[in-house]
Design brief:
The chain is an alpha+beta fold. 19% of the residues lie in helices and 41% in strands. The chain has two helices and ten strands, in the order αββαββββββββ. A hairpin with a 4-residue loop joins strand 9 and strand 10. It is elongated.
Length: 167
């Protein structure tokens, strides 16, 4: 009789655990976004200009180099940081100076920023400076976008497409 009671008790415990798991899988409604909002994602990987100009080596400098390392020009490896600005409806949403990646600072700069926005029409402006100019921007795009509830709008930079891309 005691063993039958144990089996019934174990069955009830397993049943309770399974019922709790089934309830937790559906009952607490979890949302990634608030109702009536979408996501604007600013993401790109871009290598800016080199920090300095290449210089032509003299014949003596070339001769001093080992035969397997002889080259005509000496170019610095490091890249400049990339300046990025993102405005939505005239309000500054993101400002950053993105350092180049890599041990020698010769890799591309990377950005991945996610912004939750209300649905509706928004004026989006994105700007980037990747050269040595002191003010102004090298790449710029402004567009009015219609954000639908639950929509993901990606702002990317593609040099082969001519600059910033909204998709």
């Amino acid at each position: 009789m005691i063993s039958a009671a144990r089996h019934v008790g174990r069955f009830l415990v397993v049943l309770a655990v399974m019922a709790a798991a089934a309830w937790l899988s559906a009952a607490p409604a979890w949302r990634t976004l608030p109702d009536g909002s979408g996501v604007l994602l600013l993401t790109f990987v871009h290598g800016a200009d080199r920090r300095g100009e290449c210089r032509r080596l003299t014949a003596e400098e070339i001769a001093r180099l080992p035969p397997n390392m002889r080259r005509v020009q000496d170019c610095p490896r490091g890249r400049r940081p990339v300046q990025v600005e993102l405005d939505v409806d005239g309000r500054a949403l993101y400002r950053a100076e993105l350092a180049p990646t890599g041990i020698a600072g010769d890799g591309p700069s990377r950005v991945y920023q996610r912004f939750v926005m209300t649905s509706g029409s928004h004026d989006v402006a994105v700007r980037m400076r990747d050269t040595s100019r002191a003010d102004g921007f090298d790449h710029e795009r402004r567009e009015t976008v219609a954000m639908a509830p639950g929509q993901l709008l990606v702002v990317d930079y593609r040099s082969e497409a001519g600059g910033f891309v909204f998709r």
